[in-house]
Amino acid sequence: MANNTDVKSLLDAGVHFGHLTRKWDPNMAPYIYMERNGIHIINLYKTAAKLNEATEALRKIAASGRKVLFVATKKQAKDIVAQYAGEANMPYITERWPGGMLTNFVTIRKAVKKMATVDRMKKDGRYETLSKKERLQVDRMRAKLEKNLGSISEMTRMPAALFIVDTVREHIAVAEALKLGIPIFAMADTNSNPRVIDYVIPSNDDASKSIEIIVKEAADAIKAGLEDRKSEKNAEEQAKEAAKAEKKAKKADKTEDAKEAAPTKDEEE
Description:
By secondary structure, the protein is an alpha/beta fold. The protein is 55% helix and 12% strand.
């Protein structure tokens, strides 16, 4: 059960404010506390419990070395997601969702490689051999790709999960993830369908303060998972070093025992 401090911080951030009652999705009923002035109020105790559940799962994914793709194209969420996902070293989409981002991942990777090709051209001098018109076309193409796909340039394989702000707006991303069986973590407002979400976080997905507190919690969990992975690797390396040292010591002991067991010249005479 969530403690009062957790719930109070969520309350202060306005996480409890849902949509107008006429815009609700009946499947969100279990997460709604009450109706006030024509607006649904989200049960923050359930939000806190679901948030804890989601962050634990995100921590495990990060600890396994896999990536979580953050998706938020609405204006009030773009900068927040770019900041916290970037700090956690996770890929993110904050511009228009590129159709086929997941279902046609190979093609998306080809587009990302085009950016790398242009960068290599600028380094090895081939860029300078192009005409002024060709350079302009190449620069425009590079800028467009950077804007849409720059944040996923390091994502060389499919993400292990998606973290979405507003599943109604990002319905294409949801559909692609469902088709491929990729787990979905999402902020679900009262107009969302929680049945398509694996890890539902009932929350206001419109207010920037609400978005920030939830996204920050998710990013912090991922950072903790990365630290767990780092500690585990260090422990493994230390164990290997200790095993090597022990093996070396045993070998030295055997050599010493062999020397002691060997007869001296006086004993042979």
